[in-house]
Design brief:
By secondary structure, the protein is of the alpha/beta class. The chain contains 23 helices and 15 strands.
């Protein structure tokens, strides 16, 4: 009950614990009003990823929307105020600032490419301003509302709001006078000062009526509620040690222990847990567990955080947290429209299919410490490389994104080949963890390499590709390859002979364990046979085969997924680039459905499927 000054775990451990709780079938998940409004802040692709996840929770009957939260959302929607949930971007001010920088550059910069680049950026932003104005005029709020209704509509509690208000009103003033959470910091508000307390009592009363009593209950909100949770001053730096660091960027919050105790007493269970988590923390945890599924959502959260200074774009006293008719505070910018589409790597010229490379001595001479990069440290004089690796290894988007931009500024002559190799590995790791600037770096990899010497570029690309196949101790992964951005690397591997020779030597003992080496481009067509069983959601995958050979051998269906999940399972198991996997469904209409597929542990070896073993 006395609280903590040190958050009792690291940031990574916290996200792992939160992800575990979200995956636990017995965890009940409640959402605040501002979470219902949050999809309006997202571009289409990110919104789709978020709402599909909530739909999965709803389908397993773990998601609940308090009637009070639905009431606040309805108050805004019925007053035609939903447009105020949309983010804004002050592009005219951005363009004006760039134009001033351009005039200054004309006076002081002799590099014509720099001037041309600024002119091009201004022209693109001017065009984007027009596009976004048209887009805002045409935004179909009803479409977003319909998607929200689809995800949450059937999960609204049937609580008697009027009775709730009466019961809360009888005790609210006394609670606020004694500064009891939640809601006492809203005491000065003229409208809806008791909203948080009403929502809190509704959650308790609902859980009290359940049998058996819930063991884990989580409230997701779009802000760190000021009197629901608190941020200890420090947190652990390393797991299980007494080393601590400042609890910031981002700060991790603990639920107010008074609320936990009141929840346990209120529902009549000493074993019950209650926790409050922000949508930013939830997305980070989900992204850690399944980066591909939540890539666009993670990107959107990072962009919103970058410009709003917090994981959530709605301020603590914004709409959905207090007066539902209040104007939104602190509007965050809208991510660029094309961010809704998956990033694609399009080389300037089609790659030429290379001839196989015979094993040769390792031209890059990468040391053992760099191959097992978990223990690698740059030399004392490589301060820039050291700072970059500290940021990339942080597992923290706030630390990873800024250092990506400094990679091209590293002094080539003072940065060793081993350091470039390890930086390449860690940029790829950060991209696989959904750090959006690392993803952008890979997306434009061909252009980025022009800023480096050939030896540095070869080492950087080799490190990225090495990360696909080899773990942090330098050993071959064997399965679960990190293929998320292998399609981006292939053109670079093909175009750089030194990289091809290095990878050929490294992979030579393991070629039968993967479907295709990264210097080859092939298509892999799999047949997927499905059966629709009565009274069963989705389709049962009865056969998944390549060239008549079964991928799964005698395994029962245990994992649910869509077409993309089946493709991803094959990519990661056999190290196949995403662009090389083709799925042919029978019947054809099963392609768009939900599928029950066998466990990945029962998949045939690559040697058996692709190499005639």
């Amino acid at each position: 009950m006395l609280g903590e000054t040190v958050f009792p775990m690291t940031e990574v451990e916290y996200r792992e614990r939160l992800r575990s709780a979200l995956a636990e079938p017995s965890t009940l998940v409640f959402v605040d009003t501002n979470v219902l409004a949050f999809p309006y802040r997202l571009f289409e692709g990110a919104r789709k990823e978020l709402l599909e996840w909530f739909e999965d929770l709803a389908n397993t009957e773990r998601l609940w929307v308090p009637a009070w939260a639905a009431n606040e959302y309805f108050t805004r929607s019925s007053a035609s105020n939903l447009r105020e949930y949309l983010p804004t971007l002050d592009l005219p001010s951005v363009i004006t600032q760039l134009e001033r920088q351009l005039e200054f550059a004309r006076l002081s910069v002799n590099d014509s490419n720099t001037i041309a680049g600024l002119e091009e950026a201004i022209a693109k932003l001017t065009g984007l301003k027009t596009t976004m104005r048209i887009k805002k005029q045409r935004v179909e709020l009803s479409e977003i509302h319909t998607a929200i209704q689809k995800a949450f509509g059937e999960r609204v509690l049937t609580s008697d709001i009027s009775s709730l208000c009466e019961r809360v009103g009888a005790v609210a003033a006394q609670r606020m006078q004694h500064r009891l959470p939640p809601g006492f910091k809203d005491a000065g508000k003229e409208v809806n000062a008791y909203g948080d307390l009403i929502l809190w009592r509704e959650i308790i009363e609902f859980c009290r009526g359940l049998e058996p009593k819930p063991t884990k209950t989580l409230l997701i909100t779009n802000d760190q509620k000021r009197d629901w949770s608190y941020a200890p001053t420090y947190r652990l730096r390393t797991p299980g040690s007494d080393r601590i660091e400042d609890n910031e960027r981002p700060s991790l919050h603990l639920t107010d222990p008074r609320l936990v105790r009141e929840f346990q007493a209120g529902i009549g269970s000493e074993d019950a847990s209650f926790e409050v988590a922000s949508i930013g923390d939830v997305v980070a945890a989900l992204s850690d567990g399944d980066p591909t599924r939540f890539r666009l959502l993670a990107t959107a959260l990072q962009i919103l955080s970058l410009y709003s200074g917090a994981p959530a774009p709605v301020a603590a006293n914004g709409p959905g947290d207090g007066d539902p008719n209040a104007s939104p505070a602190g509007d965050a910018p809208l991510p660029v429209p094309n961010a809704a589409e998956p990033l694609q790597c399009e080389p300037s010229q089609p790659p030429v299919e290379p001839q196989p490379v015979a094993p040769e001595p390792d031209a890059l001479a990468i040391g053992d410490a760099a191959r097992a990069d978990g223990q690698y440290q740059p030399a004392d004089h490589e301060e820039g490389a050291r700072r970059v690796l500290i940021g990339l290894r942080s597992h923290n988007w706030h630390a990873q994104n800024p250092v990506v931009g400094s990679i091209l500024s590293l002094p080539t002559e003072q940065t060793s080949i081993d350091s470039w190799f390890v930086i390449g590995r860690n940029v790829y790791q950060a991209a696989c963890g959904n750090a959006f600037r690392a993803i952008a770096f890979l997306e434009r990899l061909s252009d980025q390499l022009h800023h480096l010497s050939n030896s540095a570029a070869d080492a950087l690309v080799s490190g990225m590709a090495f990360e696909v196949y080899f773990g942090s101790d330098g050993s071959f992964r064997g399965s679960d390859f990190k293929v998320d951005y292998l399609s981006y690397l292939q053109p670079m591997v093909q175009a750089r002979p030194v990289v091809r020779r290095f990878l050929n030597v490294a992979l030579q003992p393991h070629l039968e364990a993967i479907a295709v080496p990264p210097w080859e481009v092939r298509e892999f067509a799999f047949s997927v046979t499905c059966v629709k069983e009565a009274n069963t959601p989705g389709w049962n995958v009865t056969s998944l085969a390549f060239a008549g050979k079964a991928v799964f051998q005698g395994a029962e269906a245990v994992i649910g997924g869509k077409e993309a999940d089946i493709s991803q399972l094959l990519q990661r198991r056999y190290a196949i680039p995403a662009t090389s996997v083709v799925l042919n469904f029978d019947p054809a209409e099963s392609r768009a459905g939900w599928h029950w597929i066998p466990s990945s542990s029962q998949m045939a070896a690559a040697r058996e499927l692709f190499h005639g073993g």
